[in-house]
Amino acid sequence: MNEFDFSVLTAGEPAQFGKYGSLRLRYLKENKPTLYQALLQGHLLNAHLNEIDQQAHEVVEQIAQQLIRSEQFDESVKLSNPILWVQKMNSFKDIAEETIMRDLIYC
Fold first, then answer.
1. pLDDT digits 0-9 by tens, 17-59
2. Residue 4: closest CA among 21, 13, 12
């Protein structure tokens, strides 16, 4: 696995992105080098990665909440069957992450 040197990112702007921003950075460097270079040279890379990271977190939360509502899954399950609750929550998060990977990270 290649390690990235985060010090090459836009100087003066802190790199605040998390998991999804890091995944997007890796994708850009490996699959969209022209876009990566344009963002880097235009001093827009950190802003782009921070925005993707923020959007991804918001969309994951929205999708997970929609799945919870659609399956009528509520907090009572957490008390009556905590293992099922954790399994369902992890499943909802996985489904949501699959969506953002396709629609935000790897596009």
1. 899 999 999 999 999 999 999 999 999 999 999 999 999 999 9
2. 21
The owner of tokens 């489904």 is: 95
Please report the sign of the dihedral spanned by the C-alpha atoms of residue 67, residue 69, residue 70, residue 74: positive
Matching residue, tokens 């399956």? 71
Both tokens assigned to 86: 């954790």
Q: Integer distance in angstroms from the first to the last C-alpha of the chain?
A: 21
- What percentage of residues in the chain have a pLDDT greater than 90? 75
CA angle 90, 104, 23 (to 5 degrees): 75
